[in-house]
Amino acid sequence: MSKAGSEELFHAGAHAVASTVALAWSPLPEKPTLADFFNHRFNRVRNNLPFAPGNHVIQSAHLALKAGQTEETVLACLLHDLGLWLIKPDHGWWGAQLIEPYVSEKVSWAIRYHQALRFYPDPSVGYEYPEMYVRMFGQNYKPASHIEAAYKHARNHPWYMAARLITLFDDYSFDKSATPSIEPFLDIIGRHFKQPKEGLGYDNTPVAHMWRTMIDPDRPV
Ligand SMILES: [Fe+2]
Ligand SMILES: [Fe+2]
After folding, report:
1. CATH number for position 32
2. What string of H, E and C letters represents the secondary structure of 168-202?
3. How far apart are CA 141 and CA 143, in angstroms?
4. Lowest mean pLDDT among 13-17, 38-42, 92-96, 175-179
5. Residue 56 C-alpha to ligand 2 middle, in angstroms?
6. Torsion of CA 48, 51, 52, 56, to 10 degrees
7. Ligand nearest, relative to CA of residue 53
8. Rounded to an integer, what distance in angstroms lies between the CA atom of residue 124 and that of residue 135?
9. Tens digit of pLDDT for each residue in 49-60?
10. Per the domain annotation, does 25 fall within a domain?
């Protein structure tokens, strides 16, 4: 195909995608807040996930709240799987980076390491290896070396329990058809999440592009 021909095809494709996107994703306010992302993006299924990450993390936060955990732990549970909405592999690392400029170092640390800790039981707090992982990865699955290294690092870290608590409330037996609200957590978000005045995606931090990608996740370029 000639260069002009392939360029034409690319632009036609881009145009088709752009029209689909306009229908698929509801518009966000000019200066989107974390709650806007929960209400317009995280409550939707993406990346071929079997559930909407927003609904799952809201349930985790409810469980942490009910167990009398600190607001910092409730927030960590509330944000722990947002990386999945963006990209599946290494979602702990992506998810931690996404919120790093806006939360305490401990919260983003806990989110980074929860992914690795999921593979390792801790009977001292009643955390067992997930049944779901046996189905997903098979019996006697050995996690990748970077996961094992992350686990060992976290296990000996003073903040270990912050990440471990996320795994404890990381329950996937929620009602997939329910649409839980972010509303009960707005006060905790207000106290522990430094919402940028320019809006997420427009504050020029090293992670602003990640939020912009989530504003329009199917943009062709
Ligand atoms: Fe996770
Ligand atoms: Fe989770």
Report:
1. 1.10.3210
2. HCCCCCCCCCCCCCCHHHHHHHHHHCCCCCCCCCC
3. 6
4. 13-17
5. 7
6. -140
7. 2
8. 25
9. 999 999 999 999
10. yes
In a domain, 90, yes or no: yes
Closest ligand to 77 CA? 2
In a domain, 220, yes or no: no
Higher model confidence: residue 177 or residue 31?
31
Q: Note whether residue 174 is domain-resident.
A: yes
Q: What is the pLDDT of residue 19?
A: 41
Domain span at residue 49 reads 3-215
Write out pLDDT tens, residues 172-196.
Answer: 887 888 889 999 999 999 999 999 9
Expressed in angstroms and rounded, the spacing between residue 68 Cα and the centre of ligand 1 is 21
Report the distance separating Cα 182 and Cα 13, nearest Å.
36
By the 10 Å C-beta count (0-12 exposed, 13-18 middle, 19+ buried), 148 is classed as: middle
Once rounded to an integer, what is the mean pLDDT over residues 67-95?
97
Distance 4 CA to ligand 2 centre (A): 46
In terms of phi and psi (left: phi > 0; alpha: psi -120 to 50; beta: otherwise), the region of 141 is: beta
Q: 210 and 92 in contact (C-beta within 8 Å)?
A: no
| Nearest-ligand number for the alpha carbon of 174 | 2
Cα(57)–Cα(170) distance, integer angstroms: 8
How many structural domains does the chain have?
A: 1
Nearest to 164 by CA among 132, 120, 99, 133: 120
